[in-house]
Amino acid sequence: MKPSMFYGKRVSAQPHVRTPPEDSEDSCLSDSAGSDEECIHKPGDEESSSESDRSSSDEEYFPKSGDGESSSKSDRSSSEEEVQNQDAGGASSDGECVPKPGDEESNRSSSDDEVASTSVQNARKRRNKEKVAWKPVKQTPSSAKNVPVWQGALPDSDSVRLPIDYFRQFFDTELLALIVNQSNLYSTQENPNHALRLDQKELEQFIGTVLYMSVIRLPRSRIYWSNACRVQQVADVMPRDRWEEIKHFIHFNDNTAPNNSDRLFKIRPLIDSLLPKFQALPQHQMLSIDEQMVPFKGRSVLKQYIPKKPYKWGYKIFVLCDTTGLVHSFDVYAGKSDPPAGSQDIGASGNVVLKLAQVIEGSVNHLLYFDNWFSSLDLFVALANMGIPALGTVRQNRLPGCSFSNDKMLKKKGRGTFEEEQAVVDRVEIRAVKWFDNRGVIVASTFASAQPVSFTERWDRKQRRKVSVECPSIITLYNKFMGGVDALDALIAYYRIHIRSKKYYHRFFFHFVDMVVVNGWLLYRRDCDKMNVPRKKQKDLLAFKLSIAQALCMQGKDLSAKKRGRPSSDVTREFQKKQRRGPTKAIPTQDVRADAVGHWPQIGSVRQRCKFPKCTGHTSMKCTKCDVHLCLNKNKNCFCAFHE
């Protein structure tokens, strides 16, 4: 038998040539990082890309605004883009979605995907066929565009509330009751013979202990109750086994209810309760949209991987913030971004912006900032039709027909060189500016321009001194007002809740608690500024969080009822033994002694023997209700032991 008959027909070997895509996102962009290696800058280094270094480091700090650095946000976002291989027209995420066997996304019918991809391709083809006419802008003072003046104002504050009141503005009684009911229901479903019996006060104490744990960091949760490292703020509030039981059974939705293939089904009631409260907050003029990573390394189909983030593994949330980090809206990434009702599909990243921008009032000139993962001409046009001026970095391949000089040509002209072009797309004027600092960066806007040009200082390695570099106005605005979500990340990272759990909804719940605390602190700072309270008298984030934790653990709670275990001395049994020996003054029953009502210490005129068993002391202190003498001093506290 011939070998060809046994092995099959041999095909002539031909080299496989891979043709590069016409509109590839992996092309070397002018504003993208060249490699995935971490670049460590020294003070005074020429390549001072502050926020690029921030995104690849583990340090947590506030981003400085208004420094006019060109590569700050664009380098970070574009370095993530090299891994993502996605664009605004069809990308659903800038991270790699970790697949899981049996994922419902893989079993979904391809009809919806085909319709979505067809609409995106039609939008791209339409934009390419139009051949947008870009014209260079002559740099004169008259070419400057006026930044819209804000027509709104923040409401005045009548008073400064307590920190716990800001927290309960978001975690109100309705939300706490929902968590209590669902947790008790889940406990009954798991074990009908053992009920959880969780109430709202105990749930508040659980949240308070979790806040204490975020401030007092220990490697394991059980160490807070250990003899070696006991933390009384946690151990005195709740027993260890009860705390772990609440953590195990805490739940937010009924597992038996239909989920309609919702990946966020287990936390959907929590999101539906918090989101309207965030959206109802008064908004500042300057708003920004960016992504936020929730650290998580467990098994979940929602988990994302972004190598340039400080926390590379976790869940991704798109957040709408102001410049201070105050959250006004958010959208948890769950695999597919559909356009909001009544809006055109402009791609996954653009749909996210349109969805978050629905809460922005379009008649008072709110200004919206975002990075180049979201930017596209269709997005600028859609926001302009909504009455929202926008500004953001943009990739070169998302500006069809716009031909800027490459980085080599701009480098020959020197740092600070820039070019500006304008175009009218669907009766919306868009300005695009390419500025060269350490590398080229492109920024587009519907309200800003290159003029007026300011100057910023940069370190020159060759001259070994700082030099003044021209910086267009559009770059200054972007660097000044884009860092809202970064400020939020820095505030959360200072005292993040690190409670380990394999359940993904635990990680979301603890993250939302952190987000609510930061939002409450920012509202507290806003009210203090309105009331002209000096900064020295304002609580910092640590003091604000500790105040909330203390109120949740102790306000309106009876901590004496939480003690477990066998008492050190049985008062009733010892009293009966004493009665057998001779006449003894009667004492109240156990129910009366432990009712915690009306038992007040009072100094009597006569000293008598302490009525607590096995105590031989004499005291003039007695209980007003029980009418028995009990020791109460710095050495003995028979008064509390008698009423347990």
Automatic annotation (TrEMBL):
Positions with biased composition (Basic and acidic residues): 38-57, 66-79, 101-111
UniProt superkingdom: Eukaryota
Signal peptide from the UniProt entry: none
PiggyBac transposable element-derived protein domain segment(s): 163-521
Region of interest (Disordered), ranges: 1-144, 560-587
PANTHER family: DDE_TNP_1_7 DOMAIN-CONTAINING PROTEIN (PTHR47272), PIGGYBAC TRANSPOSABLE ELEMENT-DERIVED PROTEIN 3-LIKE (PTHR47272:SF1)
Name by which UniProt lists this protein: PiggyBac transposable element-derived protein domain-containing protein
Natural source organism: Coilia grayii
